[in-house]
Amino acid sequence: MSVPELKERHAAATETVNRLRERLRQKRLQLLDTDVAGYARAQGSTPITFGPTDLVCCRTLQGHTGKVYSLDWTPERNRIVSASQDGRLIVWNALTRQKVHAIKLSCAWVLTCAFSPTGQSVACGGLDSICSIFNLNSPTDNDGNLPVSRMLIGHKGYVSCCQYVPNEDSHLITSSGDHTCILWDVTTGLKTSVFGGEFQCGHTADVLSVSINGSNSRMFVSGSCDATAQLWDTRVASRAVRTFYGHKGDVNTVKFFPDGNRFGTGSDDGTCRLFDIRTGHQLQVYYEQHDDIEVPHVTSIAFSISGRLLFAGYSNGDCYVWDTLLARVVLNLGTLQNSHEAKISCLGLSADGSALCTGSWDTNLKIWAFGGHRRAI
């Protein structure tokens, strides 16, 4: 068979797949007679209300000299690691604002960072296509810098996100601009599994974010520039378990819901969405109308401990607190006193749900705590 004939057959097959995909989408829409908010309103669910002191900025962490791109909390909730364009990782004491470690990186273009489950190590990655591991208990070198304890080399594009497997310091998952995700054995520095890339059932563009299921660490979800999210099983790397459609732009961030049966996404199309991993259905869209000509992108999301709240950071500096049940904005941190002055690039909730940390292109991190009668929700 000649090359032109193969191209013709490939084009015909692609057209058939797209046609079937559209029919499947239309069928799903027919079955979805309501969404979460519609059902909750019909049941008379009580909306959440926030007073002026229910969520306040209690600390500002200053020390970076470049845009903050990523942050992560330790499980014991009192330390935060942040990655910045200034080429440093800083480990903070969230209670005292003190810098516990300031790690100088060989590549200034760092995009992601993560604490290990025990809090003994931090991982980071960026445009050097390498995921670097630092043992925080290692002695510093002659220049006072913390040496790299392990380099995970294997991606062919930038490392966009990294996350340790829950309760395992020895394994982590990275996502990359090479369209793949990789499960690594940190002890040996070797790949355990590669998800996507050469396989037909992976992402077709840069993978920007991953989130591991806290209830079942064998499952993780990825978000990509191909406007989809995909569910993966680490035991079956050859194909995604399910692909989730709905977004009209890059999926910048994904995060599992606390129960592990759902996950949220945030996209360049300005929406957050909630999906069910068991049915593949989209349960809810979270979108606020804007007067601006350009819709602000969703850069990062996190759920509260109960899942009733969704925190979403936006490229215009807003940080919405959504009522996930009724799909209403209950608070915008961007309008409060001491809010950020630039794009919200990352955010994360402490392990006990009592505090939210946001990072911004204004070079600062801010810690927001529940006040009044609230301690977590």
Explain how this protein is built:
This protein has a 4-stranded antiparallel β-sheet with strand order 1-28-27-26, with no helix packed on it. The protein has a 4-stranded antiparallel β-sheet with strand order 2-3-4-5, with no helix packed on it. The mean pLDDT is 92. A hairpin with a 4-residue loop joins β24 and β25 (328-332). The chain has helices at 3-31, 36-42; strands at residues 55-61, 68-73, 79-84, 88-93, 99-104, 110-115, 121-126, 130-135, 150-153, 159-164, 171-176, 180-185, 190-196, 207-212, 219-224, 229-233, 242-244, 251-256, 262-267, 272-276, 282-286, 298-303, 309-314, 319-323, 328-332, 344-349, 355-360, 365-370. The chain has 377 residues and is mainly beta. It is globular, with a radius of gyration of 21 Å.
The count of helical stretches stands at 2
Task: Give the percentage of residues in beta strands.
Answer: 35-45%
Shape: globular
Between the first and last Cα atoms, what is the distance in angstroms? Answer: 62 Å
Structural class: mainly beta
Low-pLDDT sequence parts: none
Briefly say what this structure is.
The chain is mainly beta and 377 residues long. It has helices at residues 3-31, 36-42, and strands at residues 55-61, 68-73, 79-84, 88-93, 99-104, 110-115, 121-126, 130-135, 150-153, 159-164, 171-176, 180-185, 190-196, 207-212, 219-224, 229-233, 242-244, 251-256, 262-267, 272-276, 282-286, 298-303, 309-314, 319-323, 328-332, 344-349, 355-360, 365-370.
